[in-house]
């Protein structure tokens, strides 16, 4: 499942297990669009263009299935483009901050694909390492493309396709990465997020927790402007009798927590599964699902 907020905060798109993407009106809770996804399981990833005109869905929940990414007109629900990788199953998908480019990859073989969102054209195939737990990211305009594999962050030129940076990251498993401009990154593990300088690989800012607690990140997101970082997760209290679901927003430049929401529930009743953030803290939304 996935949830994404349109930049104006007026609509939210959700992906469920019924092979449909639903666009909701935030104010009324009514349905604006229902998009029919591939019948063999639907899609598990959604991305919204910053201007709200286009919506991209992709990545089958079943890793054995190869499903194309679909580019939709967000207002009419019309299907604009089908993006199918020439090789490998599409298992990773991410949009650039400006919405101009899309990057996809699959861990059944090395190789990353850079697409034009507006035209649906495949711009370039990049020879970059990809593993089963990789993440991908692309900068605004597609100047830089990122993958992670075997404890290393790889950054390649979107123009030449050649890897220009290899940043060791140790044994921590990355859950998300996003470019802030072309010279800074936000990367996150299950318990911590960092802002990195691309040229040096140096950690210039810690965002989130210090790792000395029982809170775990379930899902993370960066605002369209790159100034806010949001996450949701859970922690146990009173020897496992209660689970506390939390959603928080931090200022990326200072690492300061600017918004928090906590919910306490009896054990095994509710868990936080995904989070998205719009251009301000008032548009934070968390998706709480039974489980």
Computed structural class:
mainly beta
State the low-pLDDT regions, or none: 281-291
**Strands in their spatial order, largest beta sheet:** 1-2-3-4
Strand content: over 45%
Number of distinct beta strands:
26
Number of helices: 0
Distance from first to last alpha carbon: 13 Å
Name the helix and strand elements from N-terminus to C-terminus, one letter apiece. EEEEEEEEEEEEEEEEEEEEEEEEEE
Radius of gyration: 18 Å
| Main β-sheet description | 4 strands, antiparallel
Mean pLDDT: 80
The dominant shape is globular
Helix content: under 10%
Overall description:
- With 291 residues, the chain is an all-beta fold.
- The chain has no helices and 26 strands.
- A four-stranded antiparallel beta sheet has the order 1-2-3-4, with no helix packed on it.
- Strand 18 (184-188) and strand 19 (193-197) form a beta hairpin.
In short, what is this structure?
By secondary structure, the chain is mostly beta strands. The protein contains no helices and 26 strands.
Write the layout of secondary structure elements.
Layout: E1 2-5, E2 11-15, E3 20-25, E4 31-36, E5 45-48, E6 54-58, E7 69-73, E8 79-83, E9 92-95, E10 101-105, E11 112-116, E12 122-126, E13 136-138, E14 144-149, E15 152-157, E16 163-168, E17 176-180, E18 184-188, E19 193-197, E20 203-207, E21 216-222, E22 228-237, E23 242-251, E24 257-266, E25 270-276, E26 285-290
Antiparallel strand pairs: 1-2, 2-3, 3-4, 5-6, 6-7, 7-8, 9-10, 10-11, 11-12, 13-14, 14-15, 15-16, 17-18, 18-19, 19-20, 21-22, 22-23, 23-24, 25-26
